């Protein structure tokens, strides 16, 4: 008995990108076997018939091909952003910039550049290392004074972007630094 395309999609939606590629190969092989060997004797002996299996496999392939790009993006982001190499970040800075723009809500070069610079440092930070935004960017309030509200906003955006790209950040108790978000301590922690 063949299942419907939506049921098939539910069965495969949690598979990895690599597993989906294997599933695609399997479906294409079955489809090509039918197209290259339309044996009438098989039609009488097989339930469901090869025609039905062929049509279902085409529908499954369509659903699978819609899911593969999404899983590819997930896989790519996980692979790119879970490494501590600045080369990886620079090679994929277009994706990081897109995520930053999406998080900020605009493409103001002034803010996007600052957030990108901080995120690049966070990505390259060794696991289990404590730091602050001020340490990462060598912030000096005498040279470049950022308002307390803007520091808080930037800090929260950095934390949000880290979540989006699967970087685990542990916030360290910062009660004594109320309002000085660039000096809030955090630690990049290893993935579970």
Quick structural gist:
It contains nine helices and three strands. It is mainly α. The chain has a three-stranded antiparallel β-sheet.
Can you walk me through this structure?
With 192 residues, the protein is mostly helical. The protein has 2 domains: 73 residues; 104 residues, Orthogonal Bundle (Arc Repressor Mutant, subunit A), CATH 1.10.10. It is 64% helix and 6% strand. The chain is built from 9 helices and 3 strands. The protein has a 3-stranded antiparallel β-sheet. Helix 6 crosses helix 9. The protein is elongated. The two termini are 40 Å apart. 14% of the residues are buried. About 5% of the residues have low confidence.
Oligomer: single chain
Instruction: Please list the strands of the largest sheet in the order they lie side by side.
Output: 1-3-2
Question: Can you summarize the main beta sheet?
Answer: 3 strands, antiparallel
Q: How much helix, percentage-wise, in residues?
A: 55-70%
Number of strands: 3
Radius of gyration (CA) equals 25 Å
Compute the number of structural domains. Answer: 2
Distance between the termini: 40 Å
Poorly predicted parts: 83-91
* Computed structural class: mainly alpha
């Amino acid at each position: 008995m063949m299942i419907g395309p939506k049921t098939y999609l539910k069965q495969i939606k949690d598979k990895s990108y690599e597993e989906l590629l294997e599933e695609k190969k399997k479906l294409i092989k079955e489809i090509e076997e039918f197209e290259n060997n339309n044996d009438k004797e098989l039609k009488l002996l097989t339930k469901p018939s090869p025609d039905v299996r062929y049509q279902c496999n085409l529908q499954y392939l369509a659903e699978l091909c819609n899911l593969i790009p999404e899983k590819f993006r997930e896989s790519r982001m996980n692979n790119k952003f879970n490494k501590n190499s600045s080369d990886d970040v620079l090679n994929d800075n277009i994706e990081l910039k897109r995520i930053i723009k999406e998080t900020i809500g605009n493409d103001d070069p002034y803010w996007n550049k600052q957030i990108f610079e901080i995120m690049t440092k966070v990505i390259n930070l060794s696991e289990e290392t404590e730091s602050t935004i001020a340490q990462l960017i060598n912030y000096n309030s005498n040279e470049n004074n950022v308002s307390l509200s803007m520091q808080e906003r930037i800090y929260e955006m950095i934390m949000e972007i880290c979540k989006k790209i699967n970087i685990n950040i542990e916030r360290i108790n910062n009660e004594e630094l109320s309002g000085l978000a660039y000096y809030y301590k955090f630690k990049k922690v290893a993935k579970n």
